[in-house]
């Protein structure tokens, strides 16, 4: 298919181009593999139309004005070559809206098959919506191709064009969204500023943090060495460039140190794999354990599939001795795996030669070391330990940010010189660059690095903002995809493709307690005057459940329980709802009740948004903790937004929408959209009043809202997920309190506390309700106000 003769790429042999021919046509003496591939692609496309010469073939796009001029000036000599204008998709301010709008691309065979069921006129090279609204509304957005009849001879040369047969193309329809553009953009910046502020507030000048002995997630700190390593780990710095001929002196020095470290570790790995005295796993140091864990779990099992998960007997004594007990060496484990046919030898013996178990093991050992030489993920682990050992420094990595163009020096800026001389420390430099957002949380992909917010119109169910941070530039994916950028996004540890507003699910924390309080009221466990004593612990279950206020709240009534977010109050409701007729506690009965009331508020269904959304999960385990919003609850920010919208309007559960209307190219309205009412929650007026009053009192007790200038209501939530990461911070609310217009849901994964989510919500309310301008809120710098304290 790609023979050199077919594509006239003859660089070797007696028919190779002569030096004179190359010079005459201005051709280089050699080509890179990428250049050769581009030539083959173009010439292959031309060859497929060799008998349809009336069919144009695009050989270059987005060409410069200089190229256009050169072609047009020499058009008489360039037979069959022409320059044509074409329309392309362009997304204004794409980074803010890409998670909603999506992007377009050439249709796959599967997509064409599906689309042609509704419209058989789709061409084989059609550009279609790939994600987001572009995909959801594809049939509305897609126009109709033009056509004309062309008469050709037997070799495809055009003889005549039937002008009367010409049918002009028809533009697709226009889709208008409910999104407030300015609000969407402002919230994106608010989220970025707050997450950056959280990072800056919690970075400390240390190498490591003792997670094992830490019992308070709010006290977790981010070692500056983790920040340095993030530059490598999330590909802000290109470590492959260290070995290039145009690398800077700093890069070359880093690479020389890396080569030395790499050889040292390869020698140790080889000794473990093939030496006479391999080390029992438990006797290895932590660094070596990490290397071997990567080899077994990430490389051999997940990436290469050489260790077959299907073939391995996970009850086998030798398997358990290595993977669970650590009482044998890697060599013993892999030798045994080879003898048990747990090793897929297809990559080790590509010609299909028979290998006995010892030969399989030897081939595996050689293959591993050879593979690791070019394994970027393994190289990153080496750099981590080089950094921890101070073999390389944060200073060197910071200098490389300038060497590789990640950061640019402005005229008169002496930062680089001060950094190089040591008068500016690497830690101060990094904190400064994060504070100024020259290095963003999304780039670093530390915890936290992301956030989301959804704003709705409480009276219509329209979605006014649906923001995920970090975003991506969909212009670089539409039309002709920038594959390098696409791969960068796929490998980005902050997951910009993953919509944090509609796809990320976490426990709702105390934002869920409103459901539990309604359940208690409706099932006659409590009324608005019921007083329950909080001593700081609920001990009717084992283990006892602590209230966030370890000293206890004392006696609280219903509305005060909302205000104080008392765990014991809702724990009591959950326990009482699980008691059977004989007074025995039934876990299943309690769970069934909370599932019933979660469903009442629409939390068992997707929010209705017309883009990809994860399904919610209403708790099915750990009954009493579930009433606090823990258990196994999992919801998206968009689902929490629908929930608080229903509370704000006292009972209307909408299927939220992003769609406003569709018009034709002449701006004639073809269809108008509105949010469907999914259900109606019928609760007594006095219960709604108590919920609203309690939520208003929640906000009044949080200093973050003290200068807002308008009365709003809300509920905070802090959810614990991983012991070695901070808690998630959440806020749901609405405003103005007296006559609600908008509802807001905010989540900062690993954002330490709900206090930080409150700060985001405060700025959203201030902007959306006209209290402050975007210029007053968006400073272009990390937020100076953060909070690691939770009162929920």
Automatic annotation (TrEMBL):
Listed SUPFAM superfamilies: beta-lactamase/transpeptidase-like, Penicillin binding protein dimerisation domain
Record GO terms (molecular function): penicillin binding; peptidoglycan L,D-transpeptidase activity
Taxonomic superkingdom: Bacteria
Keyword Transmembrane appears in the UniProt entry: yes
Boundaries of every Penicillin-binding protein dimerisation domain copy: 14-159
Membrane topology: Single-pass membrane protein
Subcellular location: Cell membrane; Membrane
One GO cellular component term noted in the UniProt record for this chain: plasma membrane
Gene Ontology terms describing biological process: cell wall organization; peptidoglycan biosynthetic process; regulation of cell shape
Major place of residence: membrane
Keywords: Cell membrane, Cell shape, Cell wall biogenesis/degradation, Membrane, Peptidoglycan synthesis, Transmembrane, Transmembrane helix
One Pfam family from the record: Transpeptidase
Annotated Penicillin-binding protein transpeptidase domain residues: 452-752
UniProt protein name: Peptidase
Family: Belongs to the transpeptidase family.
